[in-house]
Structure formats: structure tokens, C-alpha cells
Design a protein that fits this description.
This protein has a 3-stranded mixed β-sheet with strand order 1-2-3. Helix 1 packs across helix 4. The protein is of the alpha+beta class. It has helices at about 5-25, 30, 65-80, 80-90, 110-120; strands at about 35-45, 50-55, 100-105. It is found in: Cytoplasm.
Length: about 130
């Protein structure tokens, strides 16, 4: 069965609330070290879980291991602010049950970059 219309709307509202909180309300130093963006929220069909996909853009040139450590620190910062975020979601959206938030790294940008590199190495010319 397909994803319901209600779950899509609720996920979008949660994304807006959390994005706004990242800009103004959450003062965790782990979140201030990099640019953090919420790329999307997927809701389960019963609305009990919301998976929030987080994109972390590192400031400056760092090696891959440092970027990974910074991304893990950002996820830890978000997990520690989960109670505050859920409280704000409950205040702004009238729900019987506030969904449990799960934060995951969004790796779609790196995957897209990798695919572009692979295609570039193939040497296929683009016709216009």
C-alpha cells in the first residue's frame, strides 16, 4: 500500500518545525560547527515514527574521517535535543501521539557525486 497523504503532510510540517528550530532555538555547540539541513522526513504509516534525514555540510577542507566525526557529532546533538524538538512539535501540531524522532544522515549527495564521477570516468560524450 502506498504512502498516505496525511503522512506526507505531517512529515513536511515536522520538517519545517525542526528546520526552524535548527536556525533559532537549538544552541548545541555540536550543531554550530557545521551547516546542518533537514533534507526530508519520512513517516511510518501509523505515524508513530518520523525518520529525519540530515545533511551536514562541513565548513573548510577536511579529510573524510573528520567529516564523518563531525556528522556523528551533529547526530548526537540532534538526539540530545530530541525532547525539546518533540515538545515544540506537540505545541505547533495538534496530535494525539507525537512521533518518535529518528535522525539519520542523508547520503544522497555523496552518492550522486560518486555516480557522476563513475559516469565521467567512462568517457561518454553528451550529445546536444
Amino acid at each position: 500500500m502506498g504512502k498516505g497523504y496525511r503522512q506526507g503532510r505531517l512529515g513536511e510540517e515536522i520538517r519545517k518545525i525542526v528546520s526552524e528550530m535548527l536556525l533559532r532555538d537549538i544552541k548545541d555547540p555540536r550543531l554550530q560547527s557545521a551547516m546542518v539541513s533537514l533534507s526530508g522526513v519520512e513517516m511510518t504509516s501509523d505515524g508513530s515514527y518520523a525518520t529525519c534525514y540530515v545533511t551536514v555540510l562541513s565548513v573548510g577542507s577536511k579529510d573524510e574521517e573528520a567529516k564523518q566525526q563531525e556528522a556523528e557529532a551533529v547526530l548526537e546533538g540532534l538526539r540530545s535535543a530530541k525532547g525539546l524538538i518533540k515538545k515544540e512539535i506537540g505545541r505547533q501540531i495538534k496530535l494525539r501521539h507525537i512521533p518518535e524522532l529518528i535522525f539519520k544522515l542523508d547520503t544522497s549527495m555523496e552518492y550522486g557525486r560518486h555516480i557522476s564521477e563513475v559516469i565521467g570516468k567512462l568517457g561518454i560524450e553528451h550529445e546536444e
